[in-house]
Amino acid sequence: MAPTKTGKKAGKTQPPAEKPVVPLETKAKAKKEVPAARESVVKPLRREGAQREVPKKRFQLGEFIANARQFFTGVWQELKKVHWPSRREVIIYTGVVLVVVTIVMLIIWIADSVYSQILRLIIK
């Protein structure tokens, strides 16, 4: 027999080595213990003893007024970009909506009437 690249003789297969049998309870305990080990490794981001002082933000009327003015200026600029429909366009669009709503209402009413008659025939 010729040796293979691994140095073992080809042709004869060796039975696989038996793995040690580990009871299922031991495996379950090992899985449960892993997160506890990870938690102990994680360190808090803050250093102990060092307290971070947050500067108190004081209300400043001038800054508030400047921000409000900037906000309303932006709102006015955006409102200038809006295209407002004319009276004629509003009347046309309203008519279209009313016609479509009426058509859908008729379709639902007819379907409801037909299904009601079918159910009455089935129940009798």
TrEMBL record:
Gene behind this protein: secE
Subunit structure and binding partners: Component of the Sec protein translocase complex. Heterotrimer consisting of SecY, SecE and SecG subunits. The heterotrimers can form oligomers, although 1 heterotrimer is thought to be able to translocate proteins. Interacts with the ribosome. Interacts with SecDF, and other proteins may be involved. Interacts with SecA.
Compartment(s): Cell membrane; Membrane
Annotated TM spans: 90-111
Record's protein name: Protein translocase subunit SecE
Entry annotated with the keyword Signal: no
Role this protein plays: Essential subunit of the Sec protein translocation channel SecYEG. Clamps together the 2 halves of SecY. May contact the channel plug during translocation.
GO terms under biological process: intracellular protein transmembrane transport; protein secretion; protein targeting; protein transport by the Sec complex
UniProt cross-references to PANTHER family, sorted A to Z: PROTEIN TRANSLOCASE SUBUNIT SECE
Keyword Acetylation appears in the UniProt entry: no
Keywords assigned: Cell membrane, Membrane, Protein transport, Translocation, Transmembrane, Transmembrane helix, Transport
Membrane topology: Single-pass membrane protein
Stretches the record annotates as Disordered: 1-31
Matches recorded under NCBIfam families: secE_bact
InterPro entries: SecE_bac, SecE_sf, Translocase_SecE/Sec61-g
